[in-house]
Amino acid sequence: LGFCQPITIETLREKHPLLDAVDHERRPNILVTVVLFGEPVRWETNLQLIIDVLLTSGYPGNPYHHESYPHIPVLACNMDLMWVAEAQSPRFGHGTFMVCLENIYKKITGKDLKYEALMGKPSKVTYQYAEYLIRAQAAERQWKQPIQTLYAVGGSAAVSQDDEIDNSWENELASAAAAHCRSVLVCTGVYNPHTEVPLDTRETITDTVFHGHRDFRFDPGLVEPDHIVPDVDAAVDLVFQLENFAP
């Protein structure tokens, strides 16, 4: 992804072994940016050490300094609260880990955890970047006709409006050119046909139907898919049909 000197949780734990006090079998000063990629295996270790980094301005060997606010930059992606595997019920996703981290930070400091950027679906900049790549591929193939319609295929019909996040760097991407973006919901994900969507968006702060991230503003219209199909294979067939394309 272009990071030249990444410091992982394992690297941090090895450099400061006394900070990881939960696993007794493993017990025995660098300024960083915290990047949250996905849910870890050892939640207690990751939650503890990330809090250490945030409350010491990137020097986890030092005592906590609650006046260090705003904290060092935090970037996060993969914000799905739940995901579906072989189990009968959905499993915790990285979004659940983020909820834990946000609440622990606020419980300790009394302040909200701030994100430099939130990336990945359903972040707006992710869709903008996807269109940017599609246009670049079309240009490489010397397609003369502009792309009018984009199709987004996923297991949860959700696009969010990230008004809370200042993504000023997204201006590096060209403005949207496609006339339409059609959502195709596949039923193999966390989709539940019996879930009711509230009409009053003000209720979504506490309403369990909204599994999106804390910093995304919810709009009921953004969870209504244009098409619903059984699986990805059917989604591809649908796009071919809609575009009158014969593979």
TrEMBL record:
One of its GO terms (molecular function) is hydrolase activity. Keywords: Hydrolase. GO terms for cellular component: mitochondrion. Coiled coil: none annotated. The keyword Hydrolase applies. Transmembrane segments: none annotated. It comes from the Eukaryota. InterPro entries: CDP-alcohol_PTase-I, HAD-like_sf, HAD-SF_hydro_IIA_CECR5, HAD_sf. GO terms for biological process: glycerophospholipid biosynthetic process. NCBIfam families: CECR5 (TIGR01456). This is HDHD5 hydrolase. The gene is Hdhd5_0.
